[in-house]
Amino acid sequence: MSIQARIEDKLQSLGPDYLAVENESHMHNVPADSETHFKVTLVSERFTGLMPVKRHQQIYAALADELAGPVHALALHLYTPEEWQARAGNRPDSPHCRGGGVPS
Predict the structure, then answer these.
(1) What is the pTM assigned to this prediction?
(2) Residue 75 pLDDT exceeds 80
């Protein structure tokens, strides 16, 4: 199973209304087909009443094995359904890494 698929599978435990896991490794200075940099957008009722740090802690707990090993970077965009609706289903774009591309 790919790292992306493992992340998607583990985050199902948070009961997402919406979940997108994007492999952004290609935007960084890593070998082709790497799975090291990810962006997660997750919408869940479980985030209601929680400050962002508490939301992030839930993700870190669910992905402890991946964060201890192959995942180098994880951008998190975590919303309640109401927050997601207020954003019209939009989340920020990731910046391009200054060292992006395939290593020489």
Answers:
(1) 0.86
(2) yes
